[in-house]
Amino acid sequence: MIKLMLLFWLISSLNGANISLPKTVLQASGGVVDLVLDGEKLYSATNASCVDVFDMQTKTLTQKIEISKITDFMGDTIDSKVYSIDVINNKVLILSQAEKGFRRVHIYTYQNEVTNGAEAQGKIELVIPHTEKLSIAKAKFLDGNTILLALLSNDIISYDIKNKKQNWKIQVSQSKFSNFALNEKKSEVVVADESGILKLYNTSNGSLIKTFSGQNLDNVFQVAYKNGIIATAGQDRRVVIYNAKTGAAYYKTAQFLIYSVGLSPSANLVGYSSDENNNVTLFDTNTRSEIGRFGPNEMTLSTILFINENEFIVSSDSNKINLYQIK
Length: 327
What we know:
Blueprint: H1 2-16, E1 19-20, E2 24-27, E3 32-38, E4 41-46, E5 50-55, E6 60-66, E7 70-71, E8 77-78, E9 82-88, E10 91-97, E11 103-110, E12 122-128, E13 136-143, E14 146-151, E15 155-160, E16 165-171, E17 177-182, E18 188-193, E19 198-202, E20 208-212, E21 220-226, E22 229-234, E23 238-243, E24 249-253, E25 261-263, E26 269-273, E27 280-284, E28 290-294, E29 301-306, E30 311-316, E31 320-325
Parallel strand pairs: 1-28
Antiparallel strand pairs: 2-31, 3-4, 4-5, 5-6, 7-8, 9-10, 10-11, 11-12, 13-14, 14-15, 15-16, 17-18, 18-19, 19-20, 21-22, 22-23, 23-24, 25-26, 26-27, 27-28, 29-30, 30-31
């Protein structure tokens, strides 16, 4: 029995030796749901009624943008989970849990710059209240006055903030919405759902550009879109790489459900959650060769975000944000 335990320990140690550890670990206020990098600031959406803002040079928490707590069905006051965030100019878009199972959207606007250690000041405005009865799953800026909303029903809406009206609305399919990703110019959005089929749309008018299918056989949990390349994280344990222009595609399989995926700015590198221990595997999208594995991550991954071609960030349902060096 002792020999078996020693053998198991030896095998585990050898496997663990191939895992690259984080160079820095940031501590968030709660479980991390979404990450956005804007210059030297890292914005972290949490399940603790706030967005944490980290300075990436000092690796310190510099600000907490707080939203009000909510009342649940039992009448108890609970934290509001922040489902997605985005940043444009001096505005922070915050999608969060609201009353009666619906969602709400706030915009936090900075009123001054942070100088000499002073705390940033700003105001927060409710732009879409829960009384609109929208089950919003994800929200991102298209520009300073336009938000792209995705509903759980798989409706995609372009929303005019100033005039509080919809520019256009489409239903992608009858399948439940999973995730979307915008290209760098925000002119295109690729939408993933539980069917495994991806659809690419023009964000100016909601017109369909292209459909991608036949690679993922089940729900796509996440999708990334960089430099004309699309990557998926699939329930079928497949990470799929599509060329958005040509439609050419291939996939790699993992040992476990793939919950998260991310692309480097050039799209030459892809990272995906590759096993039940929440490790991240990186490979070259051109040669398809594995570059390395990175861990540990305590819980199910929520975001894989590349800083550049040599560094990336991983968040999970825990309050730890891991920063990794590739080379």
